[in-house]
Design brief:
With about 240 residues, the chain is α/β, with parallel strands linked by helices. It is built from ten helices and seven strands. A hairpin with a 3-residue loop joins strand 4 and strand 5.
Length: about 240
């Protein structure tokens, strides 16, 4: 996820967790990013009309982020259940809880290298494909043919900024920091791991343990204030430091 963020941290972070939108699954590129074969199988067996457990795209476990203007949705939570819905053709609409608008920094690129973004790192093993995707984003921006719900959210955010007279494009919260600096993607970049089989239990619990008051899963469900995300940020810092 952090590969798409500008190095100067200037972008629009539009949080719509309190009023998420649903967009047609045919209108976006949807990247579920599953990591556990067992959880994929369990989801396929246990979720869906054939299992008498209808896939629910509004479930609180589902957390998705739209990257504008790339036109892609990245899954933050509910990876395996949404993959199941997608494979069984039951994922008709995708819930979006947040939007990252990187358009201003994207347009600053002049040579297709996008060095002002974190993904331009030499450690990005898919660098050329990533650059192609970023270039597509610049092309799409010329025509602005995106789901109307996304456009409405961005326009409302722009109107809000204009009314406030605030020229600052981004106010980074500790939740933002946790979801970017200590995400699954950040872990793989740091460790070079191709899967999550050897993730330390402490880090796994900070991601997914619903019985832990301070985990991404728990704080997301509780819509926790930023002070709790700050505490979780410090806990992640401690555990990620052990990986270096």
């Amino acid at each position: 996820m952090s590969d798409f963020l500008p190095r100067n941290n200037i972008y629009k972070n539009i949080d719509i967790h309190d009023n998420p939108i649903l967009i047609n699954s045919e209108d976006v590129a949807f990247i579920t990013m599953p990591w556990s074969n067992e959880r994929i199988i369990d989801s396929l067996r246990g979720i869906g009309n054939d299992a008498d457990n209808r896939f629910d795209n509004t479930n609180s476990n589902i957390d998705n982020l739209y990257i504008y203007p790339l036109g892609i949705v990245l899954v933050s939570s509910g990876n395996h259940s949404q993959l199941s819905g997608l494979l069984k053709c039951e994922l008709k609409r995708i819930k979006v809880n947040g939007i990252y608008d990187i358009s201003e920094e994207l347009l600053k690129d002049k040579d297709g290298q996008f060095v002002n973004f974190l993904g331009s790192s030499e450690e990005n093993t898919l660098l050329e494909k990533w650059q192609s995707l970023m270039e597509i984003g610049k092309y799409l921006l010329k025509y602005n043919e995106f789901p109307h719900q996304i456009i409405n959210c961005i326009e409302k955010e722009n109107d809000k900024k204009d009314r406030e007279g605030n020229k600052v494009l981004n106010s980074t919260t500790y939740k933002d920091k946790v979801l970017t600096e200590f995400s699954n993607t950040a872990y793989r970049r740091l460790t070079g791991a191709i899967n999550f089989d050897n993730v330390p239990k402490a880090i796994w619990n900070l991601w997914y343990d619903e019985n832990n008051e301070y985990s991404v899963q728990s704080l997301s469900k509780a819509n926790a204030d930023d002070s709790k995300w700050k505490t979780l940020y410090g806990m992640f810092q401690k555990e990620f430091a052990k990986l270096k």
